[in-house]
């Protein structure tokens, strides 16, 4: 007797398997070790952070001096107190990171996210939904490294950034952009009519502004709010402790989150920091993988920079339920300050190969691909002579960069020309 399972049951089972740790024991042991190492982590970071001054702190030198005098012995005492625990559990943490899978998946459903999923599904089925993806480098790193970038209070920033993202998903300003677009469109039509029919009803002969292309205003936009998106791709979310604060906020809207991605080994990142890559999605994630770059220099030896790959399950065809609507989102962080070493082009080569491999392994017969996007912090631009090899990479023939026309030429609204 053949038992035919519904498509929803199969999808739920796939998501459940994907968003379950490979080993419950190893997963909980890793959580316990991180909890026991937290006091040492905080005291060490706070102690050394006292001696790194940011631009803001330079304005109050007396206050900084008092902090050093009074807090140095406190943080030093706490660090010495928890040093034995650190010496015991740090090797355990490294061993667990070495054997675990190179990413963690978090799934959290609420009545709102369940309702949101149904609304999105109906909109996609009717062809009304416009997909949105945002990418951001948040610089959520240990306090010590954060102060080197003149940023302080990582925990506060992680929570506030999450709150800002979530608030923007409820109270967006898309209607203002649409209204602006309609005004520019109407203005362009009026200007065109004046040029064709004469200056009737037009003030003067100043057509310079009237001939401004509409797409210059429609394509580019600068806003203080996060856009309403289906997927959020984040870089430099390195601190696993502060990431929890960010994830707690994101899960209110994005039920599927892939985080803590990285391959930990002495030859890769010396067990220091992961990739800092995170992907939060409103749609089920049906496939995930992470690969670390094999080429890196300088501080790249302490990071597990790589490519985080996800396949999103967006729905199914009306005519045939076996035909899935899928989308691909890839998130990456390339080498920064590569110097004379051409590391980025080599990483781009690896990225392109991994993208093709991931799609070949996870695309099933009958799948309908709605989009394939590469997001991230590429650490090079389209103009610098030192980045010429990177800006002319074959990746840009496989994918279209929304901001650029071709190598050494960006779109006018970017302000880079």
How does the major sheet shape up?
5 strands, mixed
Number of domains: 3
Rounded to the nearest angstrom, the radius of gyration is 25 Å
CATH architecture of the largest domain, by name, is 4-Layer Sandwich
**Shape from CA axes?**
globular
Mean of pLDDT: 82
Tell how many strands the DSSP assignment holds.
11
Strand order of the largest sheet: 1-4-5-3-2
Protein name: sphingomyelin phosphodiesterase
GO cellular component, one term: cytoplasm
InterPro entries: Endo/exonu/phosph_ase_sf (IPR036691), Sph/SMPD2-like (IPR038772)
Transmembrane segments: 74-99
Describe the 3D structure.
The protein is an alpha+beta fold. It has 3 domains: 23-100, no CATH class; 102-173 and 223-379, Deoxyribonuclease I, Chain A; 176-218. The protein contains 12 helices and 11 strands. It has helices at residues 7-18, 24-49, 61-99, 111-126, 143-148, 154-170, 174-197, 215-219, 240-250, 343-362, 388-391, 395-398, and strands at residues 104-107, 133-140, 231-237, 256-259, 278-281, 285-292, 306-316, 324-333, 368-377, 404-406, 409-410. Strand 8, helix 10 and strand 9 (368-377) form a beta-alpha-beta unit. Helix 2 packs antiparallel against helix 3 and helix 6 (154-170) packs parallel to helix 9 (240-250). The model is unreliable at 1-17 and 190-217 (pLDDT under 50).
Short account of what is shown:
Helix content is 44%, strand content 17%.
Structural descriptors:
Endo/exonu/phosph_ase_sf, 417 residues, disordered N terminus, alpha+beta, Deoxyribonuclease I, Chain A, single chain, 5-stranded mixed β-sheet, transmembrane, 4-stranded mixed β-sheet, membrane, Sph/SMPD2-like, transmembrane helix, globular
